[in-house]
Amino acid sequence: MTTNPAFSGVVCPSITITADDGTIDYELWGRHLDHLIDAGIDGVLVFGSIGEFYAFDLEIKKRAVDFVVRHVNGRMKVFAGVGDTDVDRVLDFARSAQESGVDAIVVVSPYYFGPSDGAAKRFFGTIADAVDLPVILYNFPARTGSDLDPALVADLAREHANIVGMKDTVDTISHTRKVIRAVHEVNPDFAVFSGFDEYYLVNRVSGGVGVISGLTNVEPETFARLRDAYDAGDFAEATAAAERISHLMALYDQADLFISAIKGAVRAKGLEISTLIREPAVQLTDAQYDRIRELLR
User: Which GO terms describe its molecular function (predicted)?
Assistant: First the structure.
């Protein structure tokens, strides 16, 4: 029942913790990372969607990735989200992340004008060929305007040996299952993660390796418990953890943008972080924070 690809399990797409003035708060971020490690999380993704990758200057992101790699110091995997609409900036960030020592880069499809399959193959292939790092594709069609379909993913895995995984943020397991089946004909160890927290069990049943999902910021222990119970065949314990995660999914709906809700929930759990998200944005209100606290109880 266990899986043995290079990457698997529960990966936290970390919030980017800042002070109220928007500057990165490295002290509190370090404490957050330590909590993830102590809880048993397998890896952290820096500057995924929930990390507001789209809103930070490239040089700030480079320094932040370097900090995370040094702070984690091999205690869990570190992935760097290097997505951008400009391939030159993606390549610049990817090379910097490689120098910092990340375990893999995560590359989202270029957004606004969703690329055709041919353009997507050229985009991802150019990045894969430019680094000596594992590359994890990031499919989020609701935000990018294009979909990495099963045949395209299989083609990319076939043509580029270092494209070794994918985060599939599509709110239907049938899409993820079809990707898994298609890509495993090319590479049986290709690691397909679901991007939705509550899909852990069905992802694993379908041949996937786990989740990269935002609630891991809030209750990483619950996700580690779910993973361990599934691997041990303890389905009563796995079901109990999955029920808790299902309850927590309501957190995503408690703010104008889900990132605010996750930051609010991390604060409510005891880490006194700012809930600021980058402008343009509607910030978390006191009433929303009170609802988040009630949900967590």
Answer: lyase activity
